[in-house]
Amino acid sequence: xxxxxxxxxxxxxxxxxxxxxxxxxxxxxxxxxxxxxxxxxxxxxxxxxxxxxxxxxxxxxxxxxxxxxxxxxxxxxxxxxxxxxxxxxxxxxxxxxxxxxxxxxxxxxxxxxxxxxxxxxxxxxxxxxxxxxxxxxxxxxxxxxxxxxxxxxxxxxxxxxxxxxxxxxxxxxxxxxxxxxxxxxxxxxxxxxxxxxxxxxxxxxxxxxxxxxxxxxxxxxxxxxxxxxxxxxxxxxxxxxxxxxxxxxxxxxxxxxxxxxxxxxxxxxxxxxxxxxxxxxxxxxxxxxxxxxxxxxxxxxxxxxxxxxxxxxxxxxxxxxxxxxxxxxxxxxxxxxxxxxxxxxx
Length: 346
Description:
By secondary structure, this protein is α/β, with parallel strands linked by helices. It has ten helices and eleven strands. The chain has one domain (60-344): Alpha/Beta hydrolase fold, catalytic domain (Rossmann fold, 3-Layer(aba) Sandwich). The protein is 30% helix and 21% strand. Helix 3 (141-156) packs across helix 5 (181-194). The N and C termini lie far apart (45 Å). Mean pLDDT is 92; it is low at 1-25.
């Protein structure tokens, strides 16, 4: 698809995410989430540059080194690194941002601030992958980019080119991580790696210790209770209408929300009992429309004998840790970081 004035952007939570079908038809628009993405019937895509992206610079008091590196010149996929200044080797979090697979960037100011804080407080190295977006690159492009990012890390284990990064990483202690769509990416990469005939052995000597799923973006044709009845304010980071639009734009042509990439419990999804899954922690928000879906997936994983723990952040909604600056959100974000720190330091 050709792009019309494409740009990375920082999400402004004051914008509505409601999908207005009647207005879209009048202007030749195929799909729209107001203020975030507009896909025209002729294939053009617009993503408004609401707030400029930020550079990799971090505050001096955070004691971090941050750098952007292109990890795949063919697809122009790059990553932003957050490396604490310390002498010990630290766990590596390979992180994927949210945005319904259709919007978002590792350079969004909200992600830059959150991940710099997470690296500093949880004492870990973070590689934030700027994967390709739908609808120009529908799934599984984001999953493929995630796998390529892991092979890039493997290459660094045998090279001195990025010693500033590898010298600080314990490459036998790697965690897949992400929020919303990024958590979906982390989950589906874990499924790929752990499936029979997966690429886990090919990534040796990397050692995968777990996955951190923050408000994972899953769906299904049958609605859960929270999807149907969880009232969302106009400034909500994820409404049901927006969720449906993201899935229409990101899934393969002809697929519905019971595709295994969207609904890991649907008929035709990989049997969880047959997959070697790393331990997982699932971070759920009480006021999120995805709450019940997240709990269903957790219960299914436990029933399949997998090591899964979850926590529910009270009184906050989807993406609170990056978009909400209220006192309760700040408190819950600190709790979330503490939960992640405990998980990766075991």
